[in-house]
Amino acid sequence: MPTCSLDKLGSALSGLCLLHCLAGPLVLGLAAGAAVDHHALHGLHAGMALMVVPVSGWALIAGVCRHRRGVVLVAGVAGLALMLMPIAGLEARLGHGPALTLTALGSVLLMAAHHWNMCLRPLEADSRP
Predict the structure, then answer these.
(1) Where residue 3 falls among pLDDT bands split at 50, 70, 90?
(2) Could you give the number of structural domains in the chain?
(3) Which long-range contacts (CB under 8 A, 24 or more apart) does 99-105 make?
(4) 67 near 59, Cβ under 8 Å?
(5) What confidence tens digit (pLDDT) does each residue in 50-77 have?
(6) Can you give the three-state secondary structure of 64-126, one letter per residue?
(7) What are the residues whose beta carbons fall under 8 Å from the beta carbon of 116, sequence distance 6 or more?
(8) Which of 15, 60, 80, 92 is the most buried (most CB within 10 A)?
(9) pTM of the model
């Protein structure tokens, strides 16, 4: 699969994570009184990570190998690290609000890294000898 397609997929998956971060509390708030299965939420986060991490990792590494802009990979890894906070259990330490904010920021940062990776693709042809 071409790197550009992987970047588009990675960006879309990050967008789904952002949607989950922002819409999840709203849905739970509307369903006040509904029991929340925290084990199911952890499973959902783990399942999303199993999709996002390999796609984003492959796309960003392949892109950086071509355009040689390591800062794109650094931004992507930082975004992934923030997105993986719920799985790492940091939400319990930070509280739901700050963890939600950082996770949403991670999703945006990862989407930006994928977009940046796609924008640098035209430079690939210019940078080759």
Answers:
(1) low
(2) 1
(3) 100/21, 100/25, 103/17, 103/21, 104/18, 104/21, 104/22
(4) no
(5) 999 999 999 999 999 999 999 999 999 9
(6) HHHHCCHHHHHHHHHHHHHHCHHHHCHHHHHCHHHHHHHHHHHHHHHHHHHHHHHHCHHHHHH
(7) 69, 72, 75
(8) 60
(9) 0.83
Quote the domain boundaries for residue 47: 3-127
Pairwise CA distance, residues 44 & 38, whole Å = 10
| Residues contacting residue 106 through CB under 8 Å, at least 6 positions apart | 78, 79, 80, 81, 82, 83, 84, 85
Question: What is the dihedral sign for C-alpha 18, 23, 29, 32?
Answer: negative
Q: Which residues contact 105 (CB under 8 A, 6 or more apart)?
A: 82
Instruction: Write phi, then psi, for 62 (nearest 5 degrees).
Output: -60, -40
